[in-house]
Amino acid sequence: MNIGIDKIGFATSQYVLNMNDLACARGAEPEKFSIGLMLDALSITPISEDIVTLATTASHDILTEQDKADIDMVILATESGIDQSKAASVYVHSLLGIQSFARSFEIKEACYAATAALNYAKLHVSTNPDSKVLVVASDIAKYGIGSAGESTQGAGAVAMLVSSNPRILTFNDDNVAQTRDIMDFWRPNYSTTPYVNGIYSTKQYLDSLKTTWAEYQKRHQTDLKDFAAMCLHLPFPKLALKGLNKLITKNLPEQNKTQLLANFEHSIAYSRKVGNIYTGSLYLGLLSLLETSDTIKAGDKIGLFSYGSGAVSEIFSANLVEGYKAMLKPSRLLDLDKRSPLSVTEYEKLFYEEADLDEEGSATFNNYKTGSYRLKGIEQHQRIYIKNED
């Protein structure tokens, strides 16, 4: 049975911060971000946008009423959860109007979680061929003002509908995963921003890629020349480029090397304008590749490297199916250019804004721009979401 991704949707904030402006405000050379990180802009969220609104908007854009009737599982992968008990997927399920008899739950392992969710979805569909599973990776990457990680923030959600006989790509049963207990990036319950051992984390990312790839090659007797493209987790694009270059060996034919590097550039086109979206970063790269590359084609094999700090990594592959381009949105780069630009002062104001709860645990928010859904406020400690009027 062929199982894979039938539809992909994406949503990000309606506000954007230009990296040149941030560099100027922080006394850094613009090239430090544009070349050193390969980032041009960051999506910035107001208080009325969160992982639920992003996830619901990304899903709303791709689902039909028939999809909502067929979906029997909703999985939301995130590392910026809004509640220690209630899964964000339950809100998404309700806001979208998905049929009641569906499982809904949240899954966590840093930026790796969406890959685990896709594996779970694949297993579910394999035993329930008529099922559809909605997998959403939704996160807001937020670091301290002036911190080392500030320039790698971002926000967004990638929604993927997993089914049999998919119209975009089919998964190959070749997953190889690795777990190692390390402290490269973590966020305790009492902290609103993460703790990062930056240099150590980049070394762990690259070493996990190297060792997982070696095991993948050993198990499946394969080489880079078998892939039309490699999509890698994108905490920032320059790190992924370093990773890809480590995989490219001297005996790889020049034609294959050229193709892989060209398609890598296509895979980072969206992330350059959005920044780090944690669990969705790998899949935003995949979507960017599919929508901006004019050299990949049906039947091509795409490699994917997933990494989540802490740390879990995984390499797997998928093949594009005939007609996949009809399921995509080639105008997405133009949509990203429609976001409202923020000055650094405006960005910092949004960054520091928090819910001002009254004695009953209620608060209302300013009417900022959001996607199709927004967080209206909090009533007696309960989050109130609404759909924006068209």
Automatic annotation (TrEMBL):
Pfam families: HMG_CoA_synt_C, HMG_CoA_synt_N. Its EC number is 2.3.3.10. Coiled coil: none annotated. Keywords: Acyltransferase, Transferase. Residues 249-385 form the Hydroxymethylglutaryl-coenzyme A synthase C-terminal domain. InterPro entries: HMG_CoA_synt_C_dom, HMG_CoA_synth_N, HMG_CoA_synthase_prok, Thiolase-like. Residues 3-164 form the Hydroxymethylglutaryl-coenzyme A synthase N-terminal domain. GO terms for molecular function: hydroxymethylglutaryl-CoA synthase activity. PANTHER family: 3-HYDROXY-3-METHYLGLUTARYL COENZYME A SYNTHASE (PTHR43323), HYDROXYMETHYLGLUTARYL-COA SYNTHASE (PTHR43323:SF2). Belongs to the thiolase-like superfamily. HMG-CoA synthase family. This is Hydroxymethylglutaryl-CoA synthase. The lineage of its organism: Bacteria, Bacillati, Bacillota, Bacilli, Lactobacillales.
